[in-house]
Amino acid sequence: MAPHIATNTTVGLDELLEFVRPRHRAVLTTARSDGRPQSSPLTCGVDDSGRIVVSTYPERAKTRNAKRDARVSVVVLSDDWNGPWVQIDGTAEVIDAPDSVEPLVEYFRTISGEHPDWDEYRAAMLKQGKSIIRITPERWGPIATGGFPARLAEND
Fold this sequence. Notes:
By secondary structure, this protein is an alpha+beta fold. It has helices spanning 13-20, 61-68, 101-112, 118-128, and strands spanning 7-9, 25-31, 37-46, 52-56, 71-77, 86-95, 131-140, 143-145. The protein has 4 helices and 8 strands, in the order E-H-E-E-E-H-E-E-H-H-E-E. A 6-stranded antiparallel barrel has the order 2-3-4-7-6-5. A two-stranded antiparallel sheet has the order 1-8. Helix 3 (101-112) crosses helix 4.
């Protein structure tokens, strides 16, 4: 049986967003005040403007860090652990309540579709004081899969 060979597929922005849209598992990395990385597993989506969007709270470390230093990275994973993934570097914008409510509606729609009661959802977002982080992709690596180096697939 031949080994599973790792892949790296270089893509443009449109292909990147097409890859990310159906995938909602990610790890966001921000910089702590001392410059060291802080990573947060989270759920993400892609908004109508092509930004990666994340629902959060203002007191979370990722939110505070992104407000202080907008340079962030997000690794978007497939549901299957061995599935393809991509790292996206970009600039984060944090929007707090009450201005976050309509962007949070769009966030929900990108991930889950229509809510049975949007008025109830909006009220809950305000009551919880939810924030949203929008990440504008600036550079990204290839869409990758893990596995063996290609040199190991060669016959001796």
